[in-house]
Structure formats: C-alpha cells, structure tokens
Amino acid sequence: MRPGTRGAETANVLTAMNDLILASHVRSVVVSYNEEGLLSREEIGSILARFSGEKSFDFEKNFRVVEHRRFRSDSDRRPVEGRGGRAYRVLDGKDRDRIGEWLFYAERAARARRRAFGGGRLAREGDPAMHAEPERA
User: Fold this and answer.
1) Range of 64's domain?
2) pLDDT tens-place string over residues 86-115
3) Into how many domains does the chain fold?
C-alpha cells in the first residue's frame, strides 16, 4: 500500500490499536470508538478476542451502541471562491445529525492475566517488572 492512502492509514490504525491493547498490563479493557472511525466493529472485536484468549468476540454480551446527537461546530458548506467546503459524512441508515459510539468490553483470560501481571503477582511502584518489556506470543 502506498503511504497516504486510506488502506495504509487503516492498516496503521489497526496495528496501533492491536499493539496498544495486547501490550497493556490490565485485567480488562473498555474501548469507546466512534462508528465513523477507520476501524470496523469486527476488526476491534478481533483484537479484543485475542486479548481475552477467545476465538471470537461476543458482540451480544460485550458490545453496545450509544446513539447521540452529532456535534457540529459549523454547518455544511460548498467551496466558495477558493475556500474549502465542509460536509459531514452520513452513514447508511443514519440521520445526518445522529452518530453512534461503540462500547466494547473485554477481560483477559486467567492464563493471559498471569503473564501480563508477572506470573500472578501485581507489580508495585519501583518493581522492575513494571518496566519489563511485555512477552510476545
């Protein structure tokens, strides 16, 4: 993929989200992600399934959509005399002034939790384990 293309941008975001979540030293994670973002619901679910040690993410149990009014700091406008225009993207099946926030929840499997927390004990301030590089699977 060429740098600067949508595909390259999405791949970078996917890699960054994957690295952030999988390298974290936490028992559980809540992800709030705007439905207009670059990642799909399934891509985020796949990362969280790996985090949880599951084959797939349970959308029925651990996923919600919170609908709210879109914040608009200005109105749509056409380009005029060299000034750029502005248009909000309207998703299929949505009102132009409504947007959804995706909420995901995932909890590490016990075995993965022990690895993330240094063999079952929690790291304390000043503990060398706090600064150790995470294990790569």
Assistant:
1) 27-72+94-117
2) 666 666 777 777 889 999 999 998 765 555
3) 1
